[in-house]
Each structure stands twice: as C-alpha cells, then as structure tokens.
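Table S7 (text form). Paired inputs.
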Amino acid sequence: MSLTIADDGSPVYDSEETPLLKQHKKTPLPILQIGIGLILQICEPICSQSIYPYINELVSTLGITGGDERKVGYYAGLIESLFFVTEAITVLQWSRLSDHIGRKPVILVGLTGIMLSILCFGLSRTFVTLVISRCLCGLLNGNIGVMKSLMGELTDPTNRAEAFALMPVTWSMGMSLGPLIGGSLARPSDRFPNAFSAEFWKEFPYFLPCIASASIVFVVFLVAALFLKETVPKRNARPKRPSSPSPDCTLAEAVEPPSSHEPLPLQKLLVFPVVISILNYTTLAVLNISVNALLPLFFHMPLDMGGLDLEPVTIGYIIGVYGAGTGLFQFLFFAKLVRRFGPRRMFVTSLSAFIPIFLMFPVVNIVAKTLGVSLLVWVLVGCQLVLLFFMDTAYGCIFMYITASAPNKRSLGATNGLSQTTVAAARAIGPALSTSLFSFSVERNILGGYGVYAFFTLFSALSLLLAVRLPHQIWAESQELDG
C-alpha cells in the first residue's frame, strides 16, 4: 500500500485496504494536558512583548543617545536582541536535557528564569543592568523548544492540526496582553497619580508592568507544578511493540518503532527533513521578529523621521490588537485552511504576505506626512494588521513540519532544541538589524529614509525560494502509516 497527499492535505491510497489512519479515526485530544501546554506558552510573549510600548522611551531617558533620537533604534534593537542571543547559547542544551530528565523540570526552571529577569528589568536604571536582565532571561529559558516537544508528544497526525492551530492562539494572547500591560501600566505615577504617588514609582516608572507580567508567570508556574504530567517515559520503562495493532491502541502506539525509545546523537539529526524545516522556520522568524521590532519604532518616531509619533499607550493598544487578531484568526481558520489547501501551500502563501507588509510602512508614513494621522492612515494600519494576522498562519504550518521531521520520538526535544537554537540566533539578529537599518536609512536618507523596507521586501521575496522546497506531504504521515 502506498500513500500520497492530495492538494487539500488529505491522504489518498492506491489500495483497497483500510489504512491505519482510517481505522483509528481522529484521536481525541487530552484536553487538560493540552490546555496546560498552551497556557505555558503565554508567558514568554507576555514578558518579552510588554517592554515594546516603552522600550524606545526608556532608552531615550537613559542618556545614552546624547539626545539624538535617530540613535534610539540602535540601543533598543540591542536590548531586544540580547534575549535571543543568550537563548541561542543554551536552548539546545535545555531541550536535549529534557529528552533525558523530562519536559516538566526544564519547563519549571524556564518559568523561574522568566520571572527573575522581568523583575530585574523593571528595577534597572542603567543600560548595563537592562542588558544583564535580558541575558539572564535568555540563559535560563529553554522552554520554547521544550513546549513544542511537549505538544508534539501529546498529539499524533490525526489531531495535530487542531492542537497546533491553538499554539499561535495562546502565543498571540501573550502578544496581545504583553503590550497592553506595558502600555497601560508604564509610568503609573503620571497616569494614576492618586494610586501611585510614592517616590518608588517615579524612580522605577516601568516596574509596575514588569511585576504584573511576573505575577502571571507565577500563576502559570503553580499550575504547571501541580497539574502538568510528564510526557517523556522513564528510561527503564520501554513499551513492547505489538506484532499487530490492537483496536484499542492509539495510532502513535501502533506505529512506534523500537528505535524511538532512545535519543539520537546530534549529528544524526541533520537529515534533510530536519534541515529544510529549520531553515524555513529561521527565515520566517527573522522576518517576523523584524516586523515586531519595526512596528513600535515606526509608531514612536516623529513623522519627519519616518514614523507616526504616537504615545506609548496607543502603541500598546495597536500591538495588542495585532496579538488578539492573530490569535482569533488562527483559532477560527488555521485548521480549516490547512486541511483545505495543505500545509505547504499555506506556508508559502502566508510567507508571501511579508512583501506587502513591508511595502506599506513607507506608504503609511507618506500619507501621514501629507494628511496627518487621519482616518486613511488608520485604515492603512488596519490593512497591515490584517496581513499580519494571515502571516502568522505560517507558524502552525512549520511547527507541523518540524515535529514530523524528528528521526524518532525520543529525539523530538533535540530536534526542537536545534530549531530553536538557529531561530534564536536569527531572532537575535533580527531586531538589531531591522532597527539599526531603520536608523541608518533615516540618518543617511537612503531611498528617502525608507531603505530598510526595500531591504526586507527583497529578503521576503528570496525567502520564498526556500519555502517551495518543502514537500507537499509531511514526512511523519507516511512514516507512521507505513511503520
């Protein structure tokens, strides 16, 4: 019996035999554990995104730019990138460690690291202490790869699209809550003078959003510590593979090869499915993190420097709408679109949305210079946000490819760790590169100050050449069905 995948992503067989996937239908999702796994993913975006509404203002108040607003982008981008630089150093080690000792202890350590770092960030009054707090968060946080492994182990090919459709939803919730917290609670002594009149809030004007973010992480830590179940089996508890599938066994159990009980060495992970999936994830991450860094900078900078000159609270609301809209779009449409068009077609189409997204930045600024920040400007910003909603569909698709590319199940953590290492390195480059190019374009008047957008439009077009190398068929579907 052979298997092919139709354009709509459904399996097509050339045999009259009943395929294993049809025998088992769609496996019900373990709702409680999936729910906890999804909640875990909300912590990092809340803590990382909460600084975006005020980070450029904070840099301006530190006195490190010498009063030159055009240099804000250099330092803000550096601070935003440091988390990913240090995460790239340790995320693979954390993920490989989770293959051996389990996902839960590594996740709990990561949550502790996030709490400590965001509290330190709020208490920082110098550029050096800001740098140290961001580095601390990256070094201790290996959760992003481990949580993807956890979700992969809680699902199988029959229900993975539904579960992975929810991953961007919770991530987007964090992206929505983070900026809302940061924009609404920054400088509380100015915005809420009656409740926050103490000198402490004037001395540390950005501590309130930090402690609010840390409190959310603490609640999630307690939930994980009490209710999260370990998904990595004990090394001395190898299940025996039945000679033929039992009617009561799950699809994953029926097709699991004996070799899936031992983690593979790192060099054996570098096979084509893993490499091509990781490369596409990396290009997606570079483009996305660059947009995320450019948006608040674009909104903050004066009109004559290529921005919109908006207040931090307004910036927080806009980025919050971006996060909420993305989550709602993924929840309503991701699984349906993937089943209708297939993960490859959806990934390529979603990635292509970056081209108009970057081209709209100079258009919005030109309209604002001509007509002011008018209704037309907000309509154009809204169109840009809608494109961003659709673009985020690419994440669920590439997560499915990465999960399926792991050579065996006990190497899933290492595979996700390897992907997060390269992506963390790329994300470390993205904010610093994009914000620095913004400042460089404005300072040197490259293409009228819009040179940064020309660069990323070209990069977006070139990334499609890599995206089309992904196969129409996800590897694990044929491997597990033929297993």
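Next pair, protein 2 of 2.
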Amino acid sequence: MASYLVTGSSRGLGLALVSRLASLPSAQVGKIIATARQDNSPQLTELVNTSSGRVELVKLDVTNKSSIQEAAKLVEGKLQGKGLDYLINNAGLMDWSSTGLEGMDNLNDIFHTNVTSVHNVTQAFLPLLRKGEKKVVINISTTLGSFAKAEVYRQSPTPAYKISKAALNMLTVQYAQQYEAEGFTLLAISPGWLRTDLGSARADLPVETGAEKVLDIVQQTGPHQNGKFLNIHVPGWENASGNNQYDGEEVAW
C-alpha cells in the first residue's frame, strides 16, 4: 500500500489526482495526503470525508517555508513511522501577458511558486521519502517549458510560465543526479492541456483524463526513468494536428 502526497489539491489537476488515487484499490494505494493552501474546497472536503480515512488534508502553502516545515511534521505523524513513497509537486501558477515580455511583471512570483517552492517542498520531505519504499518525486511540468518546442508555442502569451517550467525541468535533473545513488526516481511529467481554471474550457482534455494518464506513468516508473521529462499517452492523440500530441514519449528538451 503505497503512500502519496499531492500539493495543490484543492482544485484542478491536484484535486483530480487525489480523486483518482482514492478510486484505486487500497491494496495499491494506501494513505493519500492532500495538501492545499486553504481548506475551503468543498470537493476536497467531500473526498476526505468519504474516504474512510485514506485521504487526509494537510494545510500547506508551498510559497511559505514555515508552512512547509509544519506540514512535513504533520505528515510524519500521519504516516505513523512509515515513509512517504510518492511526492507529486503539482502546485503551480501561470501568467498571462498580452504584450509578451514587455508586460511580464510577475516573473519572481511565478518562479518562486513553480521552481523555488518545488525545491523547498522536496527538500523538506526528503527524510520521509528516504524511509519510503518507492522514493519517487514527480514534478508537474509542461511542454511549454521545452526549448525544442519553443517555436511551436511562440504565440502563447505566458512567458513567465514557460521560463519557470524550463527551470523546473533542470531542477528535476539536478535532483535526479544527486539522489540516484539512493534509489530515488525524479521525473518531470507534462499532463497535457487540461480543462481547468488554469487551462480554460478550450483545452484538449478533461482534467480527469490528465490525472489518469499522469498516474499511469507514476505507478509504472522506477530508476530506469530517473531524470526524464515525459509526455502522457492518450490513445488517438499520438499524431493529432495542432500544437499538442500525447504520445507517451520523452519530451524533447
């Protein structure tokens, strides 16, 4: 029974990931720690209340180091001496600048949430991950952070988001290299363009599909994929027209 912690669980992909995990057999998925900055999400509250104790909510503001440290202590208690198997760094922000770089006035805020906070959370939970059997850390990224695909997404007016996710991918590689000898697996995964508040109703895929396909990768991964940047696989989307294809392959950096 593997244990999971998901950041940014109050809505969007984070909420869908927790919901999907809770739907899987308890023999496969044990304790699910859903973290969120606020505890006022009705959907997440309902998940917690109907999970027979499998899903537990921990307050965690990923941008606040004191909140991260306090959450790590609470999670340690909830795991009752056991380690954490999977950490999914999902919390993130996206900018929107209609004038591109000239209008980009929030790079520090976006970078802090999407990169620095991922480092701070991972760092704080390393002791629990070391005690876990799986030792897997997943960083939710995007193909918009790929240098190789920069031309494809030239028109997307989200410069700070692109910059921060490119940096997140390198952070993932740095962690993968440093902790490889300890049996860790660090992955960046692009979940696709999903119909969430962040992705909009015009997006390609329902958020539930993104969550399912992300977890397909997560639950099959291991040290052989350490440091990789992977795309989800959605049958029928492998060679789709347009900017986005979901072929399950490694994303070109």
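The chain has a mean pLDDT of 96.
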